Sequence to fold (227 residues):
Amino acid sequence: NAGVTQTPKFRILKIGQSMTLQCTQDMNHNYMYWYRQDPGMGLKLIYYSVGAGITDKGEVPNGYNVSRSTTEDFPLRLELAAPSQTSVYFCASSYSRTGSQPQHFGDGTRLSIL
Amino acid sequence: GDSVTQMEGPVTLSEEAFLTINCTYTATGYPSLFWYVQYPGEGLQLLLKATKADDKGSNKGFEATYRKETTSFHLEKGSVQVSDSAVYFCALSFTGGGNKLTFGTGTQLKVEL
Fold:
């Protein structure tokens, strides 16, 4: 009963380094999302996908890239890490033809850029 | 654009006290409304939802009623426990455009013995 799995749980990067945050779900959900959570700011949507091969920008996409080659996986790529990208990142998924369906969240990746 | 406003925290209560966390929204149309809860070190979990006006969502003793006339979805619980200590997020979603969630900033609840 894994649900949404994110790896790694913690990571420290140096400025300018790159990395990929992994997200996989085993619920056969068609919709997947990436959010970042900054203290006192709620969650902001970075990118989302409505199915394999289809991605779109959210509210704060700059500095990030995504791909969706399978239904299960939705990795988030940081190409040139900057201190402003220090945050907690959450992946979510939903089986969603309507906005009434809830999203299921992973436990997050805590990322620090130094 | 759409937005959600929550009361600021932290909210500190004694065990068995009554809880209200206010949530109002601004949106064109009638969204679905959600309360999510985040326990320390974990991701968000759905607490309850309501999809149309006058619907009441409920779960684990928590309730919230979708009030179209006041564009509100206040969270209530009659008697809180220490285990309810968490951050609570109000959110809305419309069908279409990825069914994206718009979140409030969250309200931290601390329940003390």
Q: What stands out?
A: Chain B touches chain A at residues 31-32, 34, 36, 41-46, 49, 51, 89, 93-96, 98-101, 103-106 (CB under 8 Å). The radius of gyration of chain B is 14 Å.
